[in-house]
Design a protein that fits this description.
This protein has 1184 residues and is mostly beta strands. It is built from nine helices and 73 strands. Among the domains are: 179 residues, no CATH class; 214 residues, no CATH class. A hairpin with a 2-residue loop joins strand 34 and strand 35. The radius of gyration is 56 Å and the shape is elongated.
Length: 1184
C-alpha cells in the first residue's frame, strides 16, 4: 500500500515537473511562441495568421504582420510589438499590455452579399491595454478613411465578447476630426458610441453594427452642432445650425428622419441663413433611391415650404407648396410679403427644370427655367406689382465658351413695390448678347424711356461692347433730375479715348444744402493697367451749407494712375484758396505723394512753406512734416499718422490767430478776434489718448457780437493745460478779463465702456470752478442800454457725474446789486443773492433787494433743466418802492408764489398799493382805431392766445392812497381786482375800480366824478362802465354819464333836476340857462355838442388859452346888431363862488366885475361893479 502511494506521488511529481517544464518552454522560448501561434491559427480555422514572429511570450513579442480574414471582415496589422500576460490564463483569457502597431488596416466588404456564417469562437479570451496605433485605415463601401494617433486604453475580445474604449485623430487642413470611441457587444453585433469634434463642431453618434450582415450598419443616431457655416468656409453665411439624423436598417435599405435647425436666422444681405428649420422623413430600398416624405422647410416666423420628393443617384424631384413667403426674410431691403404658390423641381445630371409661381394681392412672381444638355433656357421670368411689370427671357449655352443671350423689358416698373427702394415708374428694355469663358465679351444695348425715379425724371439710352481689357463702341447718354451725363468713345487700348461730360444745372436739386451749377468734362485714355485721366470741374457760384457766401470752385485732375496731380481752387469774397496734390496710386501701398501747394489769401491767410509728404491707404494715413505760415504766425505739424484704432500727432504753433478756431467751430460770424495763441501738442491716441495739449494767449482780444454790436472781452490772460494719461484727462484753465476771473481744474476719467476715443458720455467728471466777476455793470452794459445794473457775482462750483449727465454743485453769491431804469423811475439798491446748486437744482436761500424804505425778498428752488419743471419761488414785498420818480411814485406790499411745472408758469399771490402818485402825460400822437385799415399796409393779425404758457391767479388791491393825475383828470383810484387765466389761456379780470374825489376836465369845465367805476368780469380790454361827471353847485347840476362797456360805450347828458337836453348842455358848458346865452355862447354850445358826440374829453382851444393865463374861462359874447362885443374871463375860486371880468369892445367901452355865489341848488346871489353896479337874488326853476 505504501509502495503504491509512493508510486502515485512520484508520478504526480513527475507530471507537475513536466507541466512546469512545458510552461517554461511555452513562455520562455521562441519555439513555444511559434507553437502558441500555430494553435491560435488552428483554433480560428486558419483565419488568424502570424508572420515574422520573434521573442517570447513571457518577455515580449514582435511580429512583422498579423492578419485576420473572415466573411465581410479583413484585418491586417504590421510591425506589432506586444507583451503577453499569461497568468490571466488561469481565469480563461490572455492579457496583452502594452501593444503598439505601426499600421492597422480594416476592410468591411460590400453589404449586398448574402449573410456569412457566425465566426468561430476564440478558445480563450483576449484583453488588451494601452494599445497605440500610429496609422489606421478603414475601407468601407469603396471609401478609405485614414486615422492617426489611435489610442485604446482597454480592449477585451472574448469567445463572444467585444469591449473597446479609445480615441483617435483624423488630421485635415480644413476639417480636422477628434473622436472618443467606445465599443460594446460581440464580434457578431456590437454598439459604438462616438463623440468628438469636426472642424471644431461638436458631434455625437450611436451606431449598431453587425459586420457579417449584408447591411453592417443596423441603426444610427447622429447629432452635430451648433455650428456656424461661415467658420467652415469664408464665403458661407453665418448661422447657428444643428443637425439630427436618425436611421434604421430595413429590408434592403434604410428609413429614418433628417432635421436641421438654425437658432439665429438672418437675411442673406445680413450675412445670415434665412432658414429656421428643415425636416424630412426618408425611406430607401437597395440604397439606390430614397423617397422623401413630410418634407417641411421654414423661413423666418411664418414662411413654410411643404411637400414630398424623390432622390436617387441621378435625379432629385420635388413638389413644394409655398405658404406665406416673406421676401424680407431673404433680403432686408425687400418688402414684407405673404406669397403663396407652387415650386416644381426636377434636377438631373444632364437635365434640370425649375418652374414656379408665387402671388399675393398685387404681386406676382413667375419663373420657368429648363436645361437640356448644354442649353439653359430661361423661358420666362415675370414679376408684376403696383401696376408695373418686368419680363425677361434668355439662353445660356454651356460650351467651352459659354454663350449668353438675355432680354429684359420693364413697363411702369416701380422698385418701391418690391422693397425699400426709390419710388418710380420705369419703362425700358435691355439686350445682352455675349460669350463667357477665357475671353468673355458682350454687346449691350439699353433704352430707358421717359420715366421717373425718386420723384425725378429719368431717361437714358446707349450701347457698348465689353471685353476683358477693353470697352468699345460706347455711345451713352442719361438724364436724371437736373443732371445730364454723356459718354462716347472707347477705353482699354493705346489710342482709345473715352470722353465723359457731366452737367448739373441746380445742385440744390441734388443736395438741398448746396447751391450752384456744376459743369465737368474729362477724357479717359491709356489702358486698364495704366489709365490716363484729364478732367476738370467748375462750379461758378457754389454755396455751402450754413454759408451764404458765393464762391467759385474749380478742380483739375491730370495724369496717370502712377503719377498725377490734382488742383483745387476756391474763390470767394475775402478768400482765395488754392491746394495742389501730386502723387500716384501704387496698389496695396495706396496713394503716395505730397501736398505740393496750400495757400489762402484774404481774411484768413495761409501759406505752405514747404511740400508736405502725404500717404493714403485703405487703413493708413500719414502726413509728414507740414510747416505753414498762418497770418503772421507759424504752424508746424511734426507728424500725423492714422491707422484703425490709433492716431498719433505732434506739433506746435506760434502766433496762431484765434479766429481760425472760431472758424473751425462755425462761430466766425459771432466772434471777432485779434487774439493770437501759442501752443504745443503731442498726442498718441489708441485705446485712450496719451499726451499733452497746452494753449496760452500771446496777445490780442476777442469781441463777441450781440445785437449787432461788438463787445470787447478785454482778455488780459488765458491759459489751458490738458494732460492725457492712462487713467484720464487732467485739465487746468485760467482766464482773466474786464468782466472777472475764471479758474477751472480737475479731471475727466475714461469711459467704462471704452469707446474708440477712450472718452464718451459715461466718462466720470471731477472738476472745480471758481468765478469772480469784476462788476455786473461791465457784464450788462454792452447788452442793456435802457437800464443800469451793478454789483458783484461770485461762484464756487464742483462738477461731477459724467459727460453725458454732468452734476453741478456749489455756491452762487451776489452782493451790492443795483438795478435802475431812470426813464421809468425804477431805483433798486442793496440786492443780495445767496444760492446753492445741488443735484441739478438751484436752491435760493435768500434773494432780496431794496426799493425806497421797503424790501422785496424771495426764496425757493429751480431746476437746471427747464423741461423737468419743479421750480417754486415764494416772494414777499414790504412797502417796496417800485417807482421813485417825482412824477411817478409807487410803493407796494404783498406776498405770493411763482412756480413752473415743466409746461407753464404759475403765478399766484396778492399785491397791495400802499401809496403812489402817477402823472400821466398825454403827449402821444393820435392813432387810428383798431378797425382802420391803411391802404398799402398788411392788415393786423387777429390777436391770439398768450405765447407764453402762463397761469395767473393774482389779487390786486389799489389801496386808499393811489393818486393819479392827467390833463383831463385829477383824483385817486381804489378797488380790488383778481387777474387769472381762463381755460383757453386768455387773461380774465374780475373786480371793480373806482375813482375817489376825482375831478374831470371836459367841455372846458371842472366836473366832479360821482360815481366813477370800471367793472371787470372777463376780458381786460372790455370792462363795464358806470361813470358820471357832474358840474355841481348851480341851479341845475348837469353832467355826462358814460355806461355800457369800453368797446361800445353809451354817452348821455344828465341833470338834477331833470331839464331838456339842450338846457342840460347849456348848464354843463356855460353854467346858466340857454336863454341867457349870447350868440357866442351858442357857438360854444355847438362846439361842445360836437365834442360830446365825438371825443369830448379833450379841452377846447379857449379853455386851453384860459388855463395858460391862470383862468378857467375865456369867452367872446355879443357882436350882434344891437349889442357890442364883450370879452369875458372867469375863475371859479370854489365850488360855490365864481368871479368874472367883462370888457366891452364897442364904440362905448364898458367894464364890469361879477361875483356869483350859489346859496343852494336853486338860490344864488350876484354882485356887479364897474360901468354899472348892482346886486340881485336869483331863484331858479325849470320845466320840460
Amino acid at each position: 500500500m505504501k509502495r503504491r502511494l509512493r508510486i502515485l506521488m512520484l508520478l504526480a511529481a513527475l507530471a507537475a515537473s513536466t507541466s512546469l517544464a512545458g510552461l517554461a518552454w511555452l513562455l520562455g522560448t521562441e519555439s513555444g511562441l511559434h507553437w502558441a501561434m500555430e494553435r491560435a491559427g488552428a483554433a480560428t480555422g486558419g483565419k488568424l495568421t502570424f508572420e515574422g514572429a520573434s521573442g517570447t511570450l513571457g518577455a515580449g513579442v514582435t511580429l512583422v504582420r498579423v492578419a485576420y480574414a473572415d466573411a465581410g471582415l479583413r484585418v491586417e496589422a504590421t510591425r506589432v510589438a506586444a507583451r503577453a500576460r499569461v497568468l490571466p490564463l488561469l481565469r480563461g483569457h490572455i492579457g496583452i499590455e502594452p501593444l503598439t502597431v505601426e499600421s492597422l488596416r480594416v476592410a468591411l466588404e460590400d453589404g449586398t452579399r448574402t449573410a456569412a456564417p457566425a465566426p468561430a469562437a476564440l478558445p480563450v479570451g483576449l484583453r488588451l491595454g494601452e494599445v497605440r496605433i500610429a496609422r489606421f485605415e478603414l475601407h468601407v463601401a469603396g471609401q478609405t478613411h485614414r486615422l492617426q494617433s489611435v489610442h485604446f486604453s482597454h480592449a477585451a475580445i472574448g469567445p463572444r465578447t467585444l469591449q473597446l474604449g479609445g480615441s483617435f485623430v483624423r488630421p485635415d487642413a480644413r476639417f480636422p476630426i477628434t473622436v472618443e470611441l467606445t465599443l460594446r457587444g460581440t464580434l457578431r453585433r456590437f454598439e459604438a458610441a462616438v463623440s468628438g469634434t469636426v472642424a471644431g463642431i461638436p458631434a455625437q453618434a450611436k451606431l449598431a453594427l453587425e459586420p457579417q450582415h449584408r447591411q453592417p450598419l443596423r441603426a444610427l443616431e447622429a447629432r452635430a452642432g451648433p455650428a456656424d457655416p461661415a467658420k467652415l468656409r469664408a464665403d458661407l453665411p453665418h448661422g447657428t445650425v444643428s443637425a439630427l439624423l436618425l436611421a434604421r436598417a430595413t429590408d434592403g435599405g434604410y428609413a429614418g428622419e433628417l432635421s436641421l435647425t438654425n437658432s439665429a436666422p438672418a437675411a442673406l444681405d445680413a450675412g445670415g441663413v434665412p432658414l429656421t428649420s428643415a425636416r424630412t422623413h426618408f425611406a430607401s430600398r437597395g440604397l439606390e433611391r430614397a423617397r422623401l416624405t413630410q418634407l417641411r422647410l421654414k423661413l423666418g416666423e411664418e414662411t413654410t415650404l411643404e411637400g414630398q420628393g424623390e432622390v436617387d443617384a441621378e435625379r432629385l424631384r420635388a413638389l413644394l407648396t409655398v405658404r406665406g413667403l416673406d421676401m424680407r426674410a431673404l433680403r432686408s431691403s425687400l418688402r414684407r410679403t405673404r406669397l403663396d404658390g407652387k415650386l416644381d423641381l426636377d434636377l438631373g445630371r444632364e437635365n434640370q427644370a425649375v418652374r414656379g409661381a408665387l402671388a399675393e394681392k398685387d404681386i406676382l412672381v413667375e419663373a420657368d427655367v429648363l436645361r437640356d444638355g448644354e442649353l439653359v433656357e430661361v423661358r420666362e421670368l415675370h414679376a408684376r406689382a403696383a401696376g408695373g411689370e418686368a419680363r425677361g427671357s434668355g439662353r445660356i449655352r454651356l460650351a467651352k465658351r459659354i454663350g449668353v443671350q438675355a432680354n429684359l423689358r420693364v413697363e411702369r416698373f416701380d422698385p418701391a413695390a418690391f422693397g425699400d427702394f426709390p419710388q418710380g415708374a420705369i419703362s425700358g428694355r435691355l439686350e445682352v448678347d455675349g460669350l463667357l469663358g477665357d475671353a468673355p465679351q458682350a454687346q449691350a444695348r439699353w433704352t430707358i424711356e421717359p420715366s421717373t425715379l425718386a420723384g425725378r425724371p429719368l431717361e437714358s439710352r446707349g450701347r457698348a461692347r465689353f471685353a476683358p481689357d477693353r470697352v468699345t463702341q460706347v455711345q451713352a447718354e442719361a438724364r436724371y433730375g437736373p443732371a445730364r451725363l454723356g459718354a462716347r468713345g472707347a477705353f482699354g487700348k493705346a489710342g482709345d479715348a473715352l470722353d465723359v461730360t457731366l452737367d448739373v444745372q441746380r445742385l440744390e436739386d441734388v443736395d438741398a444744402d448746396l447751391r450752384g451749377a456744376l459743369r465737368a468734362q474729362g477724357t479717359l485714355s491709356g489702358t486698364w493697367a495704366e489709365p490716363v485721366l484729364r478732367a476738370q470741374a467748375r462750379v461758378p457760384a457754389l454755396r455751402l451749407p450754413g454759408d451764404d457766401k458765393s464762391r467759385a470752385a474749380h478742380v483739375t485732375v491730370e495724369g496717370t494712375q502712377a503719377q498725377h496731380t490734382a488742383l483745387l481752387r476756391l474763390e470767394a469774397p475775402g478768400s482765395h484758396f488754392r491746394a495742389r496734390l501730386a502723387g500716384g496710386w501704387h496698389g496695396e501701398r495706396g496713394w503716395q505723394g505730397e501736398v505740393a501747394e496750400l495757400e489762402n489769401e484774404g481774411t484768413y491767410p495761409l501759406r505752405l512753406l514747404a511740400a508736405a509728404p502725404l500717404e493714403l491707404a485703405r487703413e493708413r494715413v500719414s502726413l509728414g512734416k507740414l510747416e505753414a505760415q498762418v497770418a503772421n504766425g507759424r504752424l508746424l505739424v511734426h507728424e500725423a499718422r492714422w491707422s484703425p484704432g490709433r492716431l498719433t500727432t505732434r506739433g506746435e504753433a506760434r502766433g496762431l490767430p484765434a479766429a481760425w478756431i472760431a472758424l473751425l467751430f462755425g462761430e466766425a460770424e459771432h466772434v471777432r478776434s485779434t487774439m493770437l495763441l501759442d501752443g504745443q501738442w503731442q498726442l498718441d491716441a489708441a485705446a485712450a489718448p496719451l499726451g499733452t495739449v497746452h494753449l496760452r494767449r500771446a496777445s490780442g482780444d476777442l469781441d463777441l457780437r450781440a445785437g449787432g454790436e461788438a463787445v470787447a472781452l478785454e482778455i488780459s490772460s488765458a491759459e489751458l493745460d490738458a494732460r492725457f494719461a492712462d487713467n484720464g484727462l487732467t485739465i487746468t484753465a485760467r482766464a482773466r478779463s474786464r468782466f472777472g476771473e475764471l479758474a477751472l481744474e480737475g479731471g475727466i476719467g475714461l469711459a467704462p465702456d471704452r469707446p474708440a476715443a477712450g472718452y464718451g458720455t459715461r466718462s466720470p467728471l471731477a472738476l472745480r470752478a471758481r468765478i469772480e466777476s469784476a462788476s455786473l455793470r461791465s457784464i450788462a452794459q454792452p447788452f442793456i442800454t435802457q437800464a443800469r445794473i451793478d454789483g458783484r457775482l461770485a461762484a464756487q462750483l464742483g462738477i461731477d457725474g459724467t459727460l453725458g449727465e454732468p452734476r453741478i454743485q456749489g455756491e452762487l453769491r451776489a452782493t451790492a446789486v443795483r438795478f435802475e431804469i431812470p426813464a421809468y423811475g425804477v431805483q433798486l439798491t442793496d440786492g443780495q443773492l445767496d444760492a446753492r446748486l445741488e443735484g441739478g437744482r438751484i436752491r435760493i436761500a435768500s434773494l432780496s433787494i431794496r426799493g425806497g424804505d421797503g424790501e422785496f425778498a424771495a426764496s425757493g428752488s429751480l431746476s437746471l433743466d427747464p423741461a423737468a419743471g419743479g421750480a417754486r419761488l415764494g416772494w414777499t414785498a414790504r412797502e417796496f418802492g417800485v417807482l421813485s420818480r417825482r412824477d411817478r411814485r409807487l410803493t407796494v406790499s404783498g406776498a405770493g408764489e411763482v412756480a413752473f411745472d415743466g409746461k407753464r408758469v404759475l403765478l399766484t399771490g396778492e399785491l397791495r398799493a400802499d401809496r403812489g402818485y402817477l402823472l400821466i402825460a398825454d403827449d402821444s400822437l393820435p392813432r387810428p382805431g383798431e378797425d382802420v385799415v391803411i391802404v398799402g399796409q398788411a392788415p393786423k393779425p387777429e390777436p391770439g392766445g398768450p405765447t407764453v404758457p402762463l397761469a395767473l391767479d393774482v389779487q390786486l388791491d389799489l389801496g386808499a392812497d393811489l393818486a393819479i393825475e392827467s390833463q383831463t383828470m385829477v383824483g385817486k383810484l381804489a378797488g380790488r381786482l383778481r387777474v387769472a387765466n381762463a381755460e383757453d389761456g386768455r387773461l380774465r379780470v374780475y373786480g371793480r375800480l373806482r375813482a375817489v374825489n376825482a375831478i374831470f376836465y371836459a367841455y372846458g369845465q371842472r366836473l366832479l366824478v360821482d360815481p366813477g367805476e370800471l367793472i371787470f368780469d372777463g376780458p381786460l380790454d372790455d370792462p363795464a362802465l358806470a361813470i358820471t361827471a357832474w358840474r355841481r353847485n348851480q341851479a341845475v347840476e348837469a353832467g355826462v354819464q358814460i355806461s355800457g362797456n369800453l368797446k361800445a360805450p353809451r354817452v348821455q347828458l344828465v341833470s338834477n333836476p331833470p331839464v331838456g337836453e339842450s338846457e342840460r348842455l347849456s348848464w354843463l358848458v356855460l353854467g346858466r340857462a340857454p336863454g341867457e346865452a349870447s350868440r357866442a355862447d351858442l357857438g360854444l354850445l355847438q362846439a361842445a355838442a360836437g365834442a360830446l358826440l365825438t371825443r369830448g374829453s379833450a379841452l377846447p382851444a379857449d379853455r386851453r388859452i384860459a388855463r395858460a393865463f391862470g383862468f378857467d374861462e375865456l369867452t367872446l359874447r355879443g357882436g350882434g346888431e344891437l349889442e357890442s362885443s364883450v370879452v369875458a374871463v372867469g375863475k371859479r375860486v370854489s365850488d360855490r363862488a365864481y368871479v368874472s371880468y367883462e370888457q366891452g369892445l364897442g364904440a362905448v367901452t364898458t367894464s364890469l366885475v361879477k361875483l356869483d355865489y350859489a346859496l343852494g341848488p336853486r338860490w344864488s346871489v350876484r354882485g356887479e361893479a364897474g360901468t354899472s353896479s348892482g346886486a340881485g337874488l336869483f331863484y331858479r326853476f325849470a320845466w320840460d
